[in-house]
Amino acid sequence: MLLPRCYEILATFGPFEKQALQVDDAIWAAEKAVSKAESEWKQAIKLMEELKLKPQLLSFKAWLWASATVSSRTMHISWDEAGCLCPVGDLFNYAAPGEGEESNIGIEDVEGWMPAPCLPKGDTTDVLDSEKFNAHLHRLTDGRFEEDVNSYCFYARNNYKRGEQVLLSYGTYTNLELLEHYGFLLNENPNDKVFISLEPGMYSCCSWPRESQYVDQNGKPSFSLLSALRLWMTPVNQRRSVGHLAYSGHQLSVDNEISVMKWLSNNCLGMLNSLPTSKEEDALLLCAIDKIQDIYTAMELKKVLSDFGGEVCTFLENYDVQCRQRGAKLSLSRKTKLSMQRWKLAIQWRLRYKKTLADCISYCDYTVNCLPNDNVPTGGIK
Prior knowledge:
By secondary structure, the protein is mostly helical. 49% of the residues lie in helices and 8% in strands. It has helices at 15-20, 24-50, 60-73, 99-102, 110-113, 130-139, 175-181, 200-204, 223-232, 239-247, 254-273, 279-293, 298-308, 311-318, 334-370, and strands spanning 75-77, 80-84, 93-94, 143-146, 151-154, 167-168, 193-195, 214-216, 325-326, 329-330. A two-stranded antiparallel sheet has the order 1-2. Strands 3-6 form a two-stranded parallel ribbon. The protein is globular, with a radius of gyration of 25 Å. This is Protein SET DOMAIN GROUP 40.
């Protein structure tokens, strides 16, 4: 009775909301989530019919609701991949693990992940074994089933006072992953990242996995991204001699660092320019959505359309929102309101994405200006 009547996970996104994400990787993730849900429903429909479930429970809409419940409300248990529903346990809101906690197991643990061929001779670096790795994972979540007491136990990281909200960590998730599995995102998420695609030749000169090439939420490039770029900007005949420095996180030279920052800044700028709207336009669009939700008359709707137009008009046309009035009031259907909430989440996600890219450009400018070289151009990268 207390479960939500609807969810906003990616699998519930319609064509309009998926396109509103704008970024190809995010659109692909949403399409994959929808396709996966449809495939699982088709595989299960025969069994559900054999179980003689009520007709209303056989629909894709009902399946999507149940699937979203499992995805967003269940607790992890070792003996069943579906997890379990735990009374009270699913009431806690999410708190992302801090950056320091994530670094215990992430790709940024340089000594645990540094490619062996690039280590200086004489170095002995232990790779994290599976037992130690799993121990770190446990510390990134605040609840688990304890077999010795046969109970699901939750652990508070802070000393909470009466009346304060208790927040629990479900693990490390990017905002897109939170949206996919739980139907929400965080404005400040230390585990969020924007992945940077390198040129094909760049991957051949380093051993870092592609998923480690990213910019974090604050605009700072990852250790492995900087390492790969520094090595790529080095002449081929010198890479072997400086490889151990690049993999240790050291700057190789002032000129090399300028080249790295210039490439990264231009790449981020290109990614921003390839998107249909700017972060400033997205911020205004969020304001427009809030206004639409508070609109009561057709005249008010007409004013919002004249002020914002574009994507707002497309949404209203897509959901056939016309100037229907009950007396002097405008009526939005429940379906339209739910879609508007998903649309808003898509805009919030892409706005956070664009802010990260913009922050990375600022980071590159700042880094160049701080380099100890009189030849560095004033004002950063041009």
